[in-house]
Structures are given as structure tokens and as C-alpha cells.
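Folding problem:
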Amino acid sequence: MSKTVFCKKYKEDLPALEIPPMPGQLGIELQKTVSAKAWEEWKSHQVTLINEKMLDMSDHENRKWLIKQMHLFFDNADYAKADGFKSLD
């Protein structure tokens, strides 16, 4: 049986990440508070942001901005979305 975590994005118990998704304290914190489902959604959204905003991941400021967007995404705050994004709803 897989472990579960109370996901701060979805506000419910969901399957947990098996390992921290990134090194260091931030990775450990994410593993304790974010579900595997939320992490997969973030990874997809992150790729969209990197591509659309043409972020250079070797640039410290771009990485810092993306981490800020990640926190906003998981906290259900107003995070950056792709320009011209249209919901299917």
C-alpha cells in the first residue's frame, strides 16, 4: 500500500511522492505536503511556463521566479499561467 499525504493543493489525502522531488530542505518539505498528483500537474505547468516565457534555467533570477510560481501553484494562489490560455470549462 502506498503512503498518503494531506495535499495542500487539493486539501485531501492523496498518494504521496515516493522520494523528494528536488534536493535539500525544499524537496523534503514538498514530499511532506504535496501529493504525487499535484507534483505531476506542476511539472506539466512548469514546462509550459519555461517554454512560453523562454526562461533560461541557468539564470538564477529565472529559477527564483519559477520556484515562487511553484509555491503559488501549490498554495492555490494567483500563479502565472500561459498567455492566451483558454480553459476547456
Summary: The domain at 4-74 is CATH 1.10.3880.10 (YggX-like). The chain has one domain: 4-74. The helical segments are 24-33, 36-52, 60-74. The CA atoms of residues 36 and 68 lie 19 Å apart.
